[in-house]
## 1
Amino acid sequence: MSALQGLMQDHPLMISSLLEYAARYHGDREIVTLTGPGRRHRYNYADSAARARRLAKALQALGVEPGDRIATLAWNNYRHFELFYGVSGIGAVLHTVNPRLFEDQIRYILRHAEDRFVFLEPDFVPLMEKLAPDLPAVKGWFVLCEEPEMPDTALPGAQSYETLIGGHAPEFDWPVFDENTASSMCYTSGTTGDPKGVLYSHRSTVLHALASAQNSAFGLSAEDAVMPMANMYHASAWALPYICPMVGAKLVLSGRHADGPTLHDLITTEQVTFASGVPTVWTMLFQHLDATGGTLDSLNKVLIGGSAAPQSMIDRFRDRYGVQVLHIWGMTETSPLGVVSTPTPRVNALPRQDRDAILIKQGRAQYGIELKITDEAGNELPHDGQSSGALWVRGPWVARAYYGREDEPLLDADGWFPTGDVATIDPYGYMKITDRTKDVIKSGGEWISSVDVENHAMSHPDVQMAAVIGVYHPKWEERPLLVVVPRPGRTVEPESILKHLEGRITRWWMPDAVVVRDSLPLTATGKVSKLTLRDEYRDYLVDR
Ligand code: ADP
């Protein structure tokens, strides 16, 4: 006997509906892009939707078919935003490529995805000229500029974006199709092996945007002005280009600029209420504020993720600028939202210190995401805030396979995705990342949490950045080595840091040595590259 069917309308969840909603009900809300020093492009959701429709028609006229991959090498700007909708809206797949990856990785990714057309900023024309002979699947190149700004290029048949869309009228009925159709793709940065393609769907994208917008997560509304400082090519700028039209928030896009003065100027002049980015972005902003004494009056919330937000950063945002930090954890494979550190009444009722200790964690699961932690034998561990183990997630916006590797088993028998992170989950439901599996420090068979040690090191007044890595030790297998960068104009002595750590961390977690240097190597996604550090300092404790 078949179950009784509900009698509600069956509307597939379509990405195009987000922008059409914004055009209709928040048509005058602005999208502002910093296009160059002192230059801003301003238009609104109604203008943007009209141009996305023209783009959709232009793509169809080029012969783009549903399922075709269309690559972008682009910064955070209004044309890239139009591509998010124009490409996915016709059933093609928007493939956002991280232009900061190594050339070999970019070549690999474009070949693997077999992109048919490439949309690129003028800055990346030389790179693509070099790679073009290796990319036989590419049938056309579109440079994100006006016709007069077109660079001289050997890219065959290259055209400006404005010429491409210029010949088409803005009337277009978006097609409606199966909501499980692929909409966009993003490759992980390949810190372990070849980059892997995560392939999102219309359904996963819309559900993820709905969940992320909620008060229990980002808490966004039409009253917000949002500046994503995560890149649109990295997990879709944490989905803000989808969430903002959904709620009618103003969108402020910083182009290719991510320096402290630019950030501060945009926040102040565009009255930004909500900004997002990895910790290194905020470190740059703080440096600028230190130098100028500037304030952040309009800003209410800052979303920090990608790597752990240090307590000192959270405290400074709250105490000096009245800004609430929302710590988030996620990955390309989770669209990216997994957990957010919004409080609950139970947590709010705790004494200040206990409350802070919970809210510095990466956060609590949102509706739609399930979490579990397991020991090395695969047994589930209790959510007691102490037991730490491999973190697994499950939900409708979590990857089940990688593009082109559909046959490789990725999930466990119950459909859980292995995140590669190590975490604890406390009785309040808050998850805390203690490490990445590949960064774990195992000393005498016991795990040391590099994240905890880094956090305390960064609370030293003269320390700007800190990274802890495991290096070879003849007796203990591995011991922690702490690498620090002093704040500008300050010097730090290793002894003073070790003294600062005393009493803050367990004695056997104490780093065996502290190295002071001017900067830390970063990955293409702006995180500290521990791989590079481990290579460099592998024998540091032996050689001494
Ligand atoms: P990659 O860093 O390899 O490019 P992602 O950008 O998808 O990949 O990053 C996902 C990883 O980033 C997570 O698995 C986790 O290790 C780390 N991460 C993300 N957010 C946080 C956070 N708030 N605290 C600590 N680590 C985080």
## 2
Amino acid sequence: MGAEVSGDGSEVRVIRSAILWASRDPFLRRWAPRLRGVRWVLAKYMPGETFEAALDAATRLASQGITATFTHLGENVEELSQADLVTKHCLDVLDRVADQGLDAEISVKLTHLGLDLDPEATFENLVRIVERAELLGNWVWIDMESSEYVDRTLDLYGRARERFPNIGICLQACLRRTEEDVRKLVPLSPAIRLVKGAYEEAPPLAFTSRRAIDRNFLRLAIRTLEASRDRRIRLALGTHDVGLIQAVHRLAMARQLAMDEVEVQMLYGIRTPDQLELARRGRDIRVLIAYGSNWYPWFMRRLAERPANALLVIRGFFEASRQTAVGEL
Ligand code: FDA
């Protein structure tokens, strides 16, 4: 499970913490995206900044038996007018997906829809999006942000789920509270995308060792599957940790829990051979494709997930300058 540099070493934790700090720093947020080395690595995680690039990538994946989720990058908008533009963009995306006949859902962050400014306006934005998705037979996921947003996110999810069937929520296995959150959500017949968690959280709130997070992921997946014996629950395992996915399978089989409808969701560009292999074996695999110009914090969280990627950025500087030098010859 989670091999490579994603171990529990204290050096790794320090590097991870430094990268996550850099993801929040306003100065770096302004300057780092201009660096060619950063952009060189970014290309591994994003097919491009435009929705058209994401659409092309989804079409390619579809031909390989992989469905998609689009996410327009951005978070913590500072004015409600920006949240309104984001909402309109999501409506356009849903229309474009329907026109193309593509199996592609969307995922939104509530702070992108205005949560820091006005929860009611955020709820209205969310309702506009989910309503349009329902009309078009599509689906909307809500990302989970750092722990300070969890209560507000769950509250808006619960209210939206009472009105619409086509909405899911991301839950993070790193948080100690998540088991209780799952228990409270079950009566709503929720759709849950279970992930390990991408934010830095304090030990009182979160498990910090890889092993404890993986154990909690496994426990939460099994609890959710047990609950889905009595009511319909859509469960997606949002992880690239193939060993962990197999562990969920093994434990579910040992407890005679049905796994046929459990999906795997991964991010574009990560463990692509595993994505293709899962699709080849007929598994339900969906890939989240991010796009948009506000990619810096999201990209830095991807770097923090695998600190060896920081070395890739350094290599990127050399690659980018080498390519420029060759171009100049
Ligand atoms: P782990 O970190 O153990 O990685 C397993 C293996 O996957 C690694 O050994 C490596 O090979 C590969 N890998 C993982 N991350 C990599 C990277 N960045 N670059 C290169 N290789 C990498 N989080 C959150 O807090 N809120 C959210 O809403 C979401 N949403 C979401 C949707 C989907 C579809 C996915 C797949 C993930 C998220 N996440 C998220 C991110 C999640 O919390 C977690 O940080 C990442 O998925 C990395 O953890 P893994 O489960 O992949 O395990």
